[in-house]
Design a protein that fits this description.
Layout: H1 2-31, H2 36-51, E1 54-58, E2 67-71, H3 77-83, E3 89-93, H4 102-108, E4 112-114, H5 119-134, E5 138-142, H6 162-169, E6 175-188, E7 191-192, H7 209-219, E8 222-228, E9 232-235, H8 240-260
Length: about 270
């Protein structure tokens, strides 16, 4: 009963907040009266409040541009956690663009959609990401190419770093800073999550979205930890495979730090 009441109240808050904030975001995108990320941050924070999710940050996002952020990926809530704190733009799989609600919301924050299975379009998509990088957008790349279970890191895909190479090759930038970021769901209601319960937050593969949203709304009380690592400078002489290896290694180390010694509840 408590879970149903909580879910109902949370859904009411999410809808009410969206009815107010979405039109303001549309106005922002069409007129430029204020930075687009202002409303986005408020919306993400409103959604996290409804979910009962708290975000903890270790380290800082570098101020140098062009900047690509290489992160692991666990759930759709990763976007809200990052978007609630930082001025970033996301790179997402093309399927998201067709989803009834999430696709529309993703377009409101100018997400770049990529079709990994269609090589003919990969050049155009990398070029769009390169253009955004050159324009000063901090682009978040979920480098695993899929979502993990919250316990282990999947191998990073070097092909996804092609946009950094293209930005340099096209003369849009002399170099691109790539910064590793780890995301870890560490506690529920203040109690550290163990290996068995960490998948509660994860949204993997063909898992239905609506039941997962309902489960998180009913549970509430999750803590997510975002860690920023040491960036690398990627230039025309850099090896894409080596950059991928370094990012994967650093993200794995930071993720294990968060899972092994989560920050205390404040």
């Amino acid at each position: 009963m408590i879970g149903k009441i909580r879910t109902g109240l949370a859904l009411f808050w999410m809808v009410a907040a969206s009815l107010v904030l979405v039109p303001l975001q549309v106005i922002s995108m069409k007129t430029g009266l204020w930075p687009e990320t202002v409303i986005l941050k408020i919306w993400h924070r409103a959604m996290l409040w409804a979910l009962g999710m708290r975000v903890h940050v270790v380290g800082e996002m570098v101020k140098t541009r062009p900047l690509m952020i290489a992160s692991n990926h666990i759930s759709w809530t990763d976007i809200m956690a990052m978007g609630s704190r930082f001025d970033v733009t996301f790179i997402a799989k093309s399927e998201l663009n067709g989803w009834p609600i999430f696709g529309f919301l993703s377009r409101l924050q100018r997400t770049v959609f990529i079709e990994r299975e269609r090589k003919r379009k990969s050049g155009d998509q990398a070029s769009e990401i390169a253009r955004r990088l050159a324009a000063g957008n901090a682009m978040v790349l979920f480098a695993e190419g899929s979502t993990g279970d919250g316990n282990m890191l999947l191998p990073f895909k070097s092909t996804l770093f092609g946009a950094a190479s293209m930005a340099i090759a096209e003369g849009a930038a002399e170099h691109v800073v790539i910064q590793p970021v780890s995301i870890a769901y560490t506690r529920i209601h203040g109690i550290p999550l163990g290996r068995q319960h960490r998948p509660l937050a994860s949204w993997i593969g063909d898992m239905d979205l609506v039941p997962h949203v309902g489960q998180l709304l009913a549970e509430g009380g999750l803590d997510v930890e975002i860690r920023f690592g040491e960036p690398i400078d990627f230039s025309a002489r850099s090896s894409r495979k080596e950059a991928t290896r370094l990012m994967e290694e650093r993200v794995r180390d930071m993720m294990q730090q968060s899972l092994g010694q989560p920050l205390p509840v404040r």
